[in-house]
Amino acid sequence: MIARLERWTAIAAVVATSACDRGFRPLEKGDAAPAYAAVSLSGDTVSLAHLRGHAVLLNVWATWCPPCRDEMPGFEQLSQTFRDSGLVVVGVSVDRGGSDSDVREFLTAHGVRFTIVRDPEERIARTFRTVGVPETFLVDRSGRIARRWIGQFDPLSPDVITDLRAALGPTSRRGG
Do 140 and 53 meet the contact criterion of CB atoms below 8 Å apart? Predict the structure, then answer.
């Protein structure tokens, strides 16, 4: 497992280095979140532009990804805890195979109720310059990247809660 992770890290470093040579750089804290929209499982368009004024936790995931599955309960808890404070949790499923019903079955089995959009063409990867799944972005109320996590992390850890409260601003004191 470690050897595989090191190999993928090396590949990502080569890709990132060659991309930087062409003016490409990863999104960083303080950057404006790029324009992105996708269709939810209920058929509604979910757009970051329409969510401006809310803090958004944008998680790129897939049903076949074990670390993604491990993070889901934490994202659900954050959604429930901070919803009234202005947090919107959006999961972006990049599953290529299968159908919406497969994703729905997964969400039901794992108790996920926050917003899920489908992006089987992985437009999110190009738009947000991701390197794989899982990858998560915290976008503050003004539409700026407040934090980026590459790979699995604990959504309920104290440092994440601190960053989340900062992205929400003073009104977040009611949640958590």
Answer: no
- Predicted pLDDT of residue 100: 87
Question: And the tokens for 156?
Answer: 């309920």
The answer to whether 161 and 176 are in contact (CB under 8 A) is: yes
Report mean pLDDT in 10-residue bins for the chain, 176 residues: 46 46 76 96 95 97 95 98 98 87 92 96 95 96 97 98 94 45
CATH of 27-174, one of 3.30.2350.10, 3.90.550.10, 3.40.50.150, 3.40.30.10: 3.40.30.10
Transcribe 38-70 into DSSP letters.
Answer: EEETTS-EEETTTTTTSEEEEEEE-TT-HHHHH
Q: Say if CB 43 and CB 128 are below 8 A apart.
A: no
Q: State both tokens at 89.
A: 């949790």
What is the model's pLDDT at position 19? 45
